[in-house]
Design a protein that fits this description.
alpha+beta; Arc Repressor Mutant, subunit A; four-stranded antiparallel beta sheet; 10 strands; 46% helix; globular
Amino acid sequence: MAGHSKWANIKHRKAAEDKKRGKIFTKLIREITVAAREGGGDPDDNPRLRLAWDRALANNMPKDTIQRAAERGAGGGQAEALDEVRYEGYGPDGAAIMIDCMTDNKNRTVSDVRYVFSRHNGKLGADGSVGYLFSRQGSLTFEPEADSDHVLEVALEAGADDLIQTDDGAFEVVTAPGDYAAVKAALEAAGLVPAAADVTMRPSTVVELGGDSARVCMNLLDGLEDLDDVQRVYTNVEFTADALAESTE
């Protein structure tokens, strides 16, 4: 999958997240607590907790806050009543969207998700309606200025599957979920720190949106991410450079 403007899209999402720091912290704490409840409070022995821990650090959450959340989860407590549920749907021009939630009331959550879809020209779909377009993979994205040859050499030796160059000069290391931590550690040990890194649901095809469709879809994605029960939103949309520029004006 070649990205049209992947680096610009990543910067746009990171900027949007920075404006919602308090809400993001709440969701990260919830993820850490649930991960620790299920697999224990030691991130070295719990891959899901390690991933949540690293996400929290990447969002500048204090380490003592992360530790307290992990300890609370490992000891039981507030996370025990939360169910994990995934919803799938469509945005403008057939854009595929998947939403992972943690909730203590599924009826409330699905109602909120359906409302946001309907408000922004989208549609909540059935289970599996867009899921086949996504696969769980590790993704480590480097800025256009990074040394791609060095990154590729280290990443492949550590077990990465591929390195993909995007149209705007950035490049992405792709891994199997189980190899992500080892590849990330090897790259960082070599002084190669990715600008963005995560285990995510990566789309097999991309829908590029500009103009009014892009504006509507941005509002849809923002509306979903604003919901308290929503943890992660995945999409196969990449916005054109013009659409991204307009969104910052």
